[in-house]
Amino acid sequence: MGKKKRLNARFMRNLEGTLFIAPWLIGFIVFLGFPLVFSLYMSFHSVKILPTRMSYEFVGLKYYREILFGSSAFYDELIPFFQEVVIMIPVILIFSLLIAILLNQKLRGRFLFRGIFFLPVIFTTGYVLTEFVNQGEGSLGFLERFALGSYLDAFLGDSSWAKPVKEVLNRFVLVLWYSGVQILIFLAGRQTISASAYESARIDGASPWEVFWKITIPAMSPFILLNLIYTVVDMFTFPFNPIISLIGKGNYGYNSSLAWIYFLVIIIFLSLVLWIYSRLNRNQRASRA
């Protein structure tokens, strides 16, 4: 009898948990799971819209081969954008970390400054951000104001990185607009570090530079990883992403194939970034030991 009651109690707990997650589960299946599976299905078919129905003709890997081996359009858009992402990710992370450390100081009006740095996250949606840049508000004019263009030409020459570097500098204000969430996460992470750790370091005679590398960076490591993942995903869904614009130019089957290839590129890039981060983190721990 007691065993039966325990089974009934366990069943009721499982049922309650299932009911709690049911709205999310149904939403995931309807709005994300089904579209993903359907887009994968369409990537292997030629889709035609008829007056009364949609026609699907199986073409196998035709679109995948066409994108990867039959044309350079995908690579012409992906490689320059990939170079911009490689530049912007560390810039955004370093900028966000430094601003979070400054905003954690006990200065007058710090709550106002925190709000100012987070405001772009609220206002600069994809459409609003696009309009800002189209109206010329996305550039701080670094290259023209300080005549950096000639120095970059002399330093980078005909390198394939010349154009991405200039694009990032010309749109450097985007770093400010895309750092709000990262600043908030770093700020929360900085506040988890005990003040006694810094007091002990100062008593031992550690310099601010040593405190930063020996205490702040190791303690912020989980938050750096979180911001790294968030920034990578955020950059690959950038409003000015040329690949996303390219996805809307073909037919349904071609677009679906291109979307899945791009998804795999993001997964591979994110895996590579996480592998590099884990190696650097492991080496840092070994050097401290």
TrEMBL record:
Annotated Gene3D superfamilies: MetI-like
Principal location class: membrane
Key word Mitochondrion present: no
Record flagged with keyword DNA damage: no
Regions that span the bilayer: 21-44, 85-104, 111-130, 168-190, 211-233, 259-278
Pfam families to which the protein is assigned, alphabetical: BPD_transp_1
Keyword annotations from UniProtKB, A to Z: Cell membrane, Membrane, Transmembrane, Transmembrane helix, Transport
Topological type in the membrane: Multi-pass membrane protein
Cell compartment(s), UniProt: Cell membrane
Coiled coil: none
Stretches assigned to the ABC transmembrane type-1 domain: 15-281
Xref: PANTHER family: BINDING-PROTEIN-DEPENDENT TRANSPORT SYSTEMS INNER MEMBRANE COMPONENT, BLL4140 PROTEIN
Family: Belongs to the binding-protein-dependent transport system permease family.
Protein name, UniProt field: Carbohydrate ABC transporter permease
